[in-house]
Structures are given as structure tokens and as C-alpha cells.
Amino acid sequence: MAFSMTSAEYVDYLVLAGREIEQNGDYVTALDAKTGDGDHWVNLNMGFQKLISMEGELRALPLAEMLKKVGMTLMSAIGGSSGVLYGSSYIAAAKALKDRDTLDIQGVRLLLETQLQAIMDRGKAQPGWKTMIDSLYEGVQALSAALDAGADDRAAVEALKQGANQGMEHTREMEAVKGRASYQSNKGVGELDPGAVTMCMQLQCLGDYILSHKL
Ligand code: ADP
Ligand code: MG
Predict the structure, then answer these.
(1) Residue 20's domain spans which residues?
(2) In a domain, 2, yes or no
(3) pLDDT for 147-182, tens place per residue?
């Protein structure tokens, strides 16, 4: 079975992701206190709570305009590196999806591939550097591999979820190349990267939303 997700349904997903982030404050902040400066969750949560407060306005916008508004909102509401990275990722996605009204599985693939490239360009970082990129990269890789092998939508979304989780888990053994964890003597080895954890939460919510509401 194939699905098609409207702009309003994407906003429903963002609200679920915002609630998931909200509930994980202690966990993410404790992780970030070990490898970063401890503000990642506060920053990201502020951004998503702002999106939740704008839910009605966002739901009424066509897909590309909604994505652009989300990007501009996250850019201004989230501090630290994450604000610029998430902001850029949604603004790039808005451009890539400007001719579409809805997201099917290929639209989701294009959205996530575009976001990945935008974050890598803006942050001048690569997969394997122990960042939010790792969850997204492995998720996108698994999704693309499944689709190229002829998987149906359900199997492709499940591959996305599993890949994102593996990418997050792989950050535990990675050495940080950029950012605050790279200044530590052990380069953060042994701990998950907080940005990879919150990116993974969003991808799990996206996958779960599609699996339970659209397939
Ligand atoms: P800051 O590094 O400014 O304290 P945040 O606290 O907002 O940023 O977010 C920290 C997370 O951002 C890290 O755990 C990492 O996943 C991600 N991150 C930081 N720098 C980069 C970068 N250059 N490219 C990709 N992700 C990055
Ligand atoms: Mg920080």
C-alpha cells in the first residue's frame, strides 16, 4: 500500500515529535552535560514548543510554505549550532519540494536527503563525526536501499526507523571531530551524541506517524 501525507499531517507529526522531545529533557540534558555544554535539549525544546504554539497557522499553509516557515521559526527560536542546522535543513527542504502538495514515500526520501545534505553543508561535517548527522545519514541510507530493492512503503519506513536507530547507536563508539565533545581527552567515546539522539527521536516519530496513520 502507498501513502500520501498532506502539509497538515506533516504538522501533526511535528507536534508528536515536539511532545516526544519535551518528555525526554532529563535524559538528553544529562547526555549533553557529559559531552557538550548541556543546552541542546533546552534549545531544541524551545524550537518545537514554538512550532506547537503555531500549529493552526502551520497546518493552513501549503507544503513548501509550511516547511519554510518551520525552518525560519526553528532558526530563530533554537540557539546553538542546532538552530542554524535545523533551520537550514527545513529551508532547503522547502526549496526541494516546492512543486509538491503532498509527501509520498519518494517525497519523504527527497525531504530527508535534502535535509541531510543541508546539515552537512551548513555544519561542514560528515557522517562518522559523532553528530546529529549520523542518525539521519544511516536512516536515509537504509530508506534508499530498501526502496531501490523494491520494498513496499511499510518496509521502507521500517528500514528508515531501524537505520536511524543504528546511526544513533553508532555515535557511542565514534570520536567527536567537531564541537565541544572534540575538546575532551576521550572525544566523547562511550557516550551517545545528544544531537544524534534527538534527531533519532524525530525520525522514529515520523516513521511511527506514517505507519500508524497512513499505512
Ligand atoms: P552547540 O554545539 O552550539 O552547543 P547544540 O547544543 O544546539 O549546539 O547542539 C549540539 C548538537 O549539535 C551536537 O550533539 C551535535 O549532534 C550537533 N552538532 C554540533 N555541531 C555540528 C556540526 N557542525 N554539524 C552537525 N551537527 C552538529
Ligand atoms: Mg550546546
Answers:
(1) 7-214
(2) no
(3) 999 999 999 999 999 999 999 999 999 999 988 788
- Kindly indicate the confidence band of residue 198, based on its pLDDT and cuts at 50, 70 and 90: very high
> Ligand 1 pocket, 195 CB below 6 A?
yes
Counting residues of the chain whose pLDDT is more than 70, the rounded percentage is: 100
- Residue 201 forms part of a structural domain: yes
In short, whether 178's Cβ falls inside 6 Å of ligand 1 is yes
Domain CATH code at residue 152: 1.25.40.340
**Residue 1 belongs to a domain:** no
Domain count, the chain: 1
> pLDDT tens for residues 38-83?
999 999 999 999 999 999 999 999 999 999 999 999 999 997 899 9
The three grid cell numbers given for residue 179, joined into one nine-digit string: 564541537
Q: Residue 188 falls within a domain, yes or no?
A: yes
**C-beta 173 within 6 A of ligand 1:** no
**Residue 14 CA, ligand 1 centroid: distance in Å:** 20
The whole-angstrom separation of Cα 123 and Cα 117 is 10
- DSSP string across 18-66: HHHHHHTHHHHHHHHHHHS-S-HHHHHHHHHHHHHHTHHHHHTS-HHHH
Q: Provide the residue count of the chain.
A: 215
Cα(81) to centroid(ligand 1), Å: 5
Distance from Cα 196 to the centre of ligand 1, integer Å: 9
